[in-house]
Amino acid sequence: xxxxxxxxxxxxxxxxxxxxxxxxxxxxxxxxxxxxxxxxxxxxxxxxxxxxxxxxxxxxxxxxxxxxxxxxxxxxxxxxxxxxxxxxxxxxxxxxxxxxxxxxxxxxxxxxxxxxxxxxxxxxxxxxxxxxxxxxxxxxxxxxxxxxxxxxxxxxxxxxxxxxxxxxxxxxxxxxxxxxxxxxxxxxxxxxxxxxxxxxxxxxxxxxxxxxxxxxxxxxxxxxxxxxxxxxxxxxxxxxxxxxxxxxxxxxxxxxxxxxxxxxxxxxxxxxxxxxxxxxxxxxxxxxxxxxxxxxxxxxxxxxxxxxxxxxxxxxxxxxxxxxxxxxxxxxxxxxxxxxxxxxxxxxxxxxxxxxxxxxxxxxxxxxxxxxxxxxxxxxxxxxxxxxxxxxxxxxxxxxxxxxxxxxxxxxxxxxxxxxxxxxxxxxxxxxxxxxxxxxxxxxxxxxxxxxxxxxxxxxxxxxxxxxxxxxxxxxxxxxxxxxxxxxxxxxxxxxxxxxxxxxxxxxxxxxxxxxxxxxxxxxxxxxxxx
Length: 531
Description:
Mean pLDDT: 92
Radius of gyration: 24 Å
Number of helices: 17
Number of strands: 8
Strand content: 5-15%
Order of helices and strands: EHEHHHHEHHEHEEHHHEHEHHHHH
Structural class: alpha/beta
């Protein structure tokens, strides 16, 4: 029997939405990060620790984007997150009294309160408030492979003709990853798996040895590999290519194109995530939780299952086992069938899973992932592997020319460039062209002028984030996304105008440099033309 490897890649990305003002009241921007910490990152670390303690073998690939790492590492995050948890704990104690006469709901209040207190203990005592260091500790043990990605999770095919912009996203992404984790490893994760020709030359120029692409990039290639998606191949520049398993996201969330809702996370017994008391109770009942602007926020107190009945932990746990078994059997069957077609050659399957699906969107997602890992370990019919373990034959793999596509939209990222957000792309392309031009006009600046050029480069990189386009397209905080994007463009235009008039407002410059803290080491020269 040949080896059958399952590569699980979790992608944790988040728009650079922040509120670093510790004196400012709790706002919606905080809740996005803090919910992800509570529902995804801390449960994942808890799972890693438990598996390691019980000697259950596991390996996972993890993508942590630079904006997310900056948010997690910022000095204000620890203080504000604990204050947020304390507020939720106080609300939970009030909920115990409010639901005292309802045993089924009271049981769920106690469960939510217990989870919040555990998150507080884990964050402060187990991980000392440093989640970056926590993830790195598992990477140092060879249990995680941390894969760098583009600086601001930009949809790179939009800049195919602006090579300097592509180089800047790759260069800064790798540098940022190294600043957080000490090394860059072997691979590079393309945001949204967006691929177009010539990417391999750029990635190889930075010493990148592999990347992951959408299934169609291999299957639509003119020189389609005989092994399909079940074995790595290489490009003409010897960049190793892994293709994602097309079915994995749909297994979890269902096929969104036909609205069937048949994914694991939609099972009747799982907790209904939209039903949060933060949206359901009267303002007076949430007085101790709401901020001064009375914004409605998720509290984490969710008492109902998808079927409309009170949430039952035992029923949900039983469903987790069923769904983990189903996922495991599907992937094993696919690998066994591939083994027959490949005539005994080793084969693998690469499953790319957005971290939000096993955190904020699906309360039981981490428990499901743990059960999948335990099944793989106990049965021994397939093993979990890392991408870097399959590139030793890098220069002897079959060569192909990957087909240009992505995992976004219907396969071509069309949702990131439609009538709702195309104005963003027009603006950022102009700003990118101007930034490239500025590096030509000011090739060796120092002092104040270099600082303002660095600020301009940072604003361009932040504006290039495709998170803004996606939020507008999906109607997810579209006003905020438009405002954040426009702020980046406006700041860059101020930089451009200041350089044109040779007049710099140093007070404004200092304030902007301290505003968000992302890429403090950035040099504007990353946008220079490559000779």
